[in-house]
Design brief:
Strand order of the largest sheet: 14-15-17-16-18-19-22-23
Number of helices: 9
Distance between the termini: 96 Å
Number of strands: 25
Shape: globular
Helix content: 10-25%
Radius of gyration: 31 Å
């Protein structure tokens, strides 16, 4: 009687499953060691029926369509950020996979500013039953923010522990991206904890300039600025872009406008080496701003009748002044937390930026200064307040209700009442945000509630206001409304 040898016990063959699919689509499941030798032995002893394959696994792969492994081993943890390269106003999807279910993990971001300072944010999550974490769906339970905040790891960035005091994140070189390292860490930890285990990492790029956008320095007719042009021949609608008392030449908002299809001229008007000195004074007047507007309007790639102006803080005052007093004719205006008057610019040539009269300055417990009361309409000489009844184009006014640097709510009230009284309410759009501060900028960028204002004659820090999460909401919503307002008035 012929005996038939029996297969060895399971424990001798290992625990991983090998599925081989034959030409007749029958599937044979065999317990085997996960090694090439065992597979060859099984074929040779005909424990796996011969299906016309050579003994090399390369031929086996061609004949049976490959080997599919079902393993009890989990793949290595994976962190993804999509798209990996995007404009700063674009949200990205951040996901972690192949993690233990119902386990604590930390997702963190780290990046260096153009000045070399390290900024970071982190959030604590608990993985789901399938071993995943998805920032568009899941809630942070600790760290830089709480709740479901898909972009919290960007707007929640803060200077790393031990950094210089009073930092504010501002892009200086818009031709390079912010390079952000995102890491997935084991447990609920902070990035500064050196003992934390890094499970996975990915790098993302955040750009202000889209591919094809042109950047051109302007030094023409005394005008100092930078012109950004969208890809293509144009002509394009355009924006004249002005910032506030920080001075210098700030380009990142203009670069982003050009990335959205608008020619944009970022204008310097004081505290710049190419402007008349001294840099502590505004040494240009109304003719300078008029020249800048016409320079943009007359550009061969700009629609002459579709030019708007945007300004933050004191730049918003100049924005209004240009439309009301200087004699240019913009298609629309956007003012962000701007005053209606000025103690330093009542003639063509202005005055000192840091006013000698400090009776309206207020200080908090740490000695940080607030300039809010300086811009109260009741504290201006009535003759210095702009004559709003002369406004002839649509105006959007954006208010941060926690503004500690300007009296934005009172200013918005006065604009609204004045325009209503002269039958021009239809020109006014007011957008107001509770708990947002003075520096309402493009979305997903961190807010500075306080920052270094000056170092001479003494170091001084100024208060801007705003609380992180509601300020982030304000920036995201305001940017959408700004682009919609521009679309209506410059493209419509």
């Amino acid at each position: 009687m012929q005996t038939t040898s029996k297969p060895k016990k399971k424990k001798e063959l290992g625990s991983a499953k090998v599925h081989l699919v034959s030409g007749d689509r029958n599937t044979i499941t065999v317990r085997a060691h996960v090694c090439l030798t065992t597979i060859r032995q099984l074929i040779e002893t005909k424990m796996i029926p011969c299906i016309g394959v050579h003994r090399s696994l390369a031929c086996l792969h061609r004949a049976v369509g490959g080997v599919r492994w079902k393993s009890s081993f989990r793949p290595a943890p994976l962190l993804t950020a999509a798209p990996a390269r995007a404009l700063v106003d674009e949200p990205i999807s951040i996901k972690g996979r192949f993690l233990p279910p119902h386990s604590p993990v930390t997702v963190c971001t780290q990046m260096h500013s153009d000045d070399g300072d390290l900024w970071e944010a982190f959030a604590h999550y608990n993985t789901n039953s399938d071993g995943t974490v998805n920032l568009t769906r899941d809630h942070s339970v600790g760290g830089s923010y709480l709740g479901c905040e898909p972009m919290g790891l960007f707007w929640g960035l803060q200077p790393a522990p031990g950094s210089r005091e009073g930092l504010r994140l501002r892009k200086k070189n818009v031709e390079t991206p912010y390079i952000v390292l995102m890491s997935l860490l084991e447990g609920h930890v902070s990035p500064s904890e050196r003992q934390s285990t890094k499970l996975a990492a990915v790098t993302t790029e955040r750009w202000y300039m889209a591919p094809g956008v042109q950047r051109k320095e302007i030094r023409q007719d005394g005008v100092v600025g930078t012109l950004f042009l969208p890809p293509g021949p144009g002509p394009f609608p355009a924006m004249l872009d002005m910032w506030g008392m920080g001075g210098g030449l700030v380009e990142y908002r203009s670069a982003l406008f050009a990335s959205r299809g608008y020619a944009s001229l970022s204008l310097a008007y004081f505290n710049h080496k190419d402007l008349p000195g001294p840099q502590s004074r505004i040494n240009v007047g109304d003719p300078y701003f008029k020249s800048a507007f016409h320079l943009l309007q007359d550009h061969r790639q700009v629609f002459a009748d579709k030019v708007g102006i945007i300004g933050l803080s004191f730049g918003g005052y100049i924005t209004l002044r240009m439309a009301i007093q200087i004699g240019v004719k913009p298609s629309c205006l956007i003012c962000i937390n701007s005053p209606l008057g000025s103690a330093i610019m009542h003639s063509d040539v202005g005055g000192e930026i840091i006013e000698s009269n400090q009776k309206y300055w207020t200080y908090d417990d740490q000695g940080y200064v607030s300039f809010r009361d300086i811009s109260l309409p009741t504290n201006f000489n009535p003759e210095s307040i702009l004559k709003l009844e002369h406004l002839a184009c649509p105006l959007m006014y954006i208010v941060g209700e926690d503004d500690l640097s300007a009296s934005s709510m009172e200013t918005a009230d006065m604009i609204e009442e004045t325009l209503k009284a002269v039958g021009k309410s239809h020109l006014f759009t007011r957008v107001s945000y509770p708990d947002a501060g003075h520096l309402i900028e493009p979305p997903y960028t961190p807010n500075a509630r306080v920052s270094l204002w000056s170092v001479k004659p003494k170091k001084m820090f100024t208060l801007w206001g705003g609380h992180p999460a509601p300020h982030a909401v304000a920036q995201e919503d305001a940017w959408k409304k700004v682009l919609d307002f521009m679309e209506t008035n410059l493209r419509g």
